[in-house]
């Protein structure tokens, strides 16, 4: 889920930012800053996910990451200013960072032993194929 979400965010950002440029009268630097904030949220998300997974378990980390992703995605859709949108994108990046490694571990644990390598490879194919690339 997180690889698909992150690659979708990167692939759809130019379309989204073009719309927001017209609506909020943004400059090109604002587009770059929003994507930077998204990826900047990944760094603490990875660390926080590891700490929570060690102390409370991977399932708690997974559910918390999914709740954060759902909450701030909905809030970013309702954002009325650039700064609030940027803050939501930071927390979306944080949630994606939390989900990146925990999801892979859960996927490999739930897959049959002879299918584990295929399932993890298919999970990360979203980065290679990106939703916006023509197939």
Number of distinct helices: 6
What value does the Rg take, in angstroms? 16 Å
Major sheet details = none
Q: Give the number of DSSP strands.
A: 0
Binned, the helix content reads over 70%
Oligomeric state as shown: single chain
The coarse overall form would be globular
The chain-level structural class is mainly alpha
Order of helices and strands: HHHHHH
Poorly predicted runs are none
- Taking all residues together, what is the mean pLDDT? 80
* Distance separating the two termini: 20 Å
* Beta-strand fraction estimate: under 5%
Question: Key terms for this structure?
Answer:
single chain; 135 residues; mainly alpha; 0% strand
Summarize the structure in words.
This protein is mainly α and 135 residues long. The chain is built from six helices and no strands. It has helices at 2-24, 28-56, 58-77, 82-110, 116-123, 125-129.
Topology record:
Layout: H1 2-24, H2 28-56, H3 58-77, H4 82-110, H5 116-123, H6 125-129
Short description:
The protein is an all-alpha fold.
